[in-house]
Amino acid sequence: MRAWRVHSHGDPVDVMTLDEVPEPEPGPGQLKVEVLAAALNFPDILMAQGTYQEKPPLPFTPGIELCGKLPDGRRVLGSPAGGPGAFAEYALVDEAFAWPVPDGMSHAQAASLYLTYQTGYVGLHRRAALQPGEWLLVHAGAGGVGTAAIQLGKAAGAQVIATAGGAAKTQVCTEMGADHVIDYSSEDFVARVKEITGGHGADVVYDPVGGDVFDGSTKCIAFEGRIVVVGFTSGRIPAAKANHLLVKNYSVLGLHWGLYRRKDPARIGQVHEALCQLFAEGKIAPLIGQTLPLDQAQTALAALGDRGTVGKVVLVP
């Protein structure tokens, strides 16, 4: 079978090759699936660079989110067993974490539901305890993580403010249901959040960017607000100043969703059921910005790293 493999750490375009390798053989508690679609995520880039918190041994096949077909024809979604491995024609998944695909959901959408929407749901509901009517600020709103958070925030009854760069991406945020959209390329999002909320500030901030965006979020957070730290696509890990948290009375919450598979595995199934219900009600639907053949993985990851994509980018073997 064909599978992309990272042979040394560096930029994916330099260190990934499309190899011919044996099909994987399932071990105890594992299922072999034919990969129908594999979604891209920023951690795919970080893993290739060797800078992610999880460092799979070399060589490894990237890809942490997929939709696959079992030998009996049933479709399942989830992550490959034991780490990455979705950018291939076949993959292994843990039977306990192979979730049925909701009726009416495309292969590409199913590949995009697991990691991004599970993270958003746990982040907003479990970590931040988002309440109806609260102000939710979603950064990088046009990307896969952001579009999911906008939809989940609206489904929770929040008033959603999204940030994005440029007219095309701000339009995507509007189409996803954001009540207010800030173009950070031409507007100061701190001042605009204060203006939009009448000085109240954001009750919850969903931040996959870090760096200057995190710093700015601390300046427009509401009393008893919660900043959910999702990632650092800006490349800079910010520092939370304890004295500032004390003076403004807000919280900074870490969100490493992957830990729930070990610490609270039952929650994964509960969240999957909730997401399937939201999809059935028409309240969420993964936005697929682009679908590309498997052999274009390098091009797709380069575009994702350069922030040249909207929604989710999906590879199809």
TrEMBL record:
PROSITE patterns per UniProt: QOR_ZETA_CRYSTAL
Gene Ontology molecular function terms on file: oxidoreductase activity
EC primary class: oxidoreductase
Signal peptide: none
EC code: 1.-.-.-
Pfam family, one: ADH_N
Annotated protein name in UniProt: NADPH:quinone oxidoreductase family protein
Species of origin: Klenkia sesuvii
